[in-house]
Amino acid sequence: MNKITAALEALTQKRASFKIMEFCGGHTHSLVNSGLMSLLPKAIRMIHGPGCPVCVLPAHHIQAVIDLLEKTSNLTVCVYGDLLRIPTLRGDSLLTAQSRGKSVKMVYSPLEVLRLAEADPQKEFLFMAIGFETSAPATATLLTNAKARKLKNLSVLCLHVLTPPAIAGVMEALDEEQRPHALIAPGHVSIVTGLEVYREFSERYRIPIVASGFEGSDIWESIQIACECLIKKEYGVFNQYTRALPASGNLRAQKLLEEVFEVRPVFVWRGLGEVKNSALTLRDTWAPWDAERRFQLQYRDVPEHPGCRCGSILRGQNSPPDCRLFMRACTPRRPLGSCMVSSEGACHAYFLLNGGIQ
Amino acid sequence: MCLATPTRILNREGDRALVDKDGLRLEVDVSLLPEAKPGDFIVVHVGIGLSILNPDETREVQAAQKIYWSMRDE
Amino acid sequence: MNTFIERVDGTGGRSTHKLIEEIFHPLLKNELLSPNDAAIAPWNSRTLIVTTDAHVVEPIIFPGGDIGKLAVTGVINDLLTQGGRPLYISLTFILDEGLALTHLKQVVQSISSTLQQNSIRLLCADTKVVPARGQPGMMISSTLFGEPFNQSLSLPGPKAGDKLIVTAPLGAHGLALLSARENLPFETSIVSDCQSLLPLLAPLLLESRSLHCLRDITRGGLAGILHEWSQQYRVGFEIDETQLPARAEVRAGLDLLGIDLLEVANEGVMLMAVEANSAQEVLSQLRASPLGSEATVIGETTLLNNAPLVMRTKMGGKRLVAWPEALNLPRIC
What residue of C is the nearest CA neighbor of A5? Predict the structure, then answer.
């Protein structure tokens, strides 16, 4: 038997079932691609969490940006690649807007927007800032640099979301017996926030929380740590990713986030609904670079496809095969919901897990 | 999206550093890592350095990984 | 004096004639290239093997090659997959108005060299000019004719038990094209490895009885080809992640871009299904040539049970590999 399976099987001798949620989409992706998923004994069940910023972003934000592009001729919208294919109204997307001539540019870093804005002072550049705490420092750095260089022709649409409230949101949305017994926390978010942010959840729900790296071997180790805790009926916050993750996180990054952002009282997450204090917006001093304030964005409702179960999948209540659209009407080629668009979404991960076969 | 990569700093000038990953060169912002210096391995996410890797532990993990892979055939 | 292609160059009149005389003929003329509307060439073989392909790659000149070299090497490698020795080629050029003549000359020179190196004669050619569209470039369509290396060679398709061999490291061409075309966040020294595999495969195609199937690993990557084979021949495949050859720098680049090594396009890399008992021998023959020095056995053919393509991962787990959607990958061939 494979060494990994053997080690995990040994644990299942001591406890009948383990339900572990890996919060982060990057972990879901790695779990499947490394083949680790195929090595887990049946007693260890993984629940895929909502930590996929593309998956939890309601499409009405993207629709609003597309609408803005239609009526603003000198505007260029800069986005991370994953946002391009998210379907909006009538099958539209930033990618199809680009094909009909709208100025949409894919960037690998928000700092590219500085270069673009400097090169083209006549144009307006809008950066759609999505992502959890891992990406927020990069957005903040974009803004501090824009201020220092007095660049007026760029703005940020701040859609950053926060991990701890999402953890709370998921746990609260599930009945006690549906909740995971342990949580694998995102290693890269933790590099920014530090580990203390998980303490209250570990205590409130009495679950072990393991901040994990992203290699298959990291996730295996994290699963082992979580299982061992469960066997000993212990809980707490643990660091598996010690080679990269300092317990206090990156203090400079935390200070920068404080300086640039404040917490929105409420934000609507796809799947989780309204979650309090779970997203960021720019502080008043940064108003000149706030796209929401600069452009008076109009929001139109983008309803979910009637059969779409992304919501309950993001909450961990259902798994992709439970959705009757999965792999029938909804495929990576023609995604109907956000869980399929992003390569980190649970539905996309399941698609890969099953090799594209129903 | 959580994709962050370990890279090695070749040189640093103020807040910018040139880093190497297996022969690829990229320019990243290291304003959040004031102590990072040439020779250090750092974790980079969307163009920003977020933490400095512990070199000994990183080597240990890489060595352990090689052992896992070589032992995968029962 | 002209330095760019103009629309009038495509009208078939004096300008076109001048373009052909000044740019194409010095590099491509040979006694078989007919001034008439059809060419006559000697043909002795019982069987004709033909392949055709269109090339629309952008940019037309990239690290490691250009569209001209690609237009020839691409069809050579395709012909080889059917056991064909290339003999004659027909080429069509569609030139964008605004294309610099220096670029055109460079491309035609590449074609000329590649034809010579592979002993292929140009029988006929045509050229047209189209109105400007974005970056001035060109498109080339090539049709290659050949005869079997070995009249008794049969390529029955992969059979359960056959070993899978890849002749060179994966991903170089794909990454080189992406770095030439997109504004990537990194610099790479990787160049395209597009090349003719005629010298590598001719000896094997002349003699071997153990080759069962060959494919050029282009668009869709290794995963795409294996899924196509699975559908065509009703077999399955199991490959080993630890055996997939690729340069560290290529892996790093693809990682940063979020592109799977299994899906990246290649040029100049051949996938072969070989009878199991002869696999080591074929491997040694391949490795004896500089073009095949890194040939590797990457897996094997199985019965089609559930999934067409399964990969054994580094961790020893299994991962089913889906048919690539190919939507996110830019055209590079």
Answer: C317
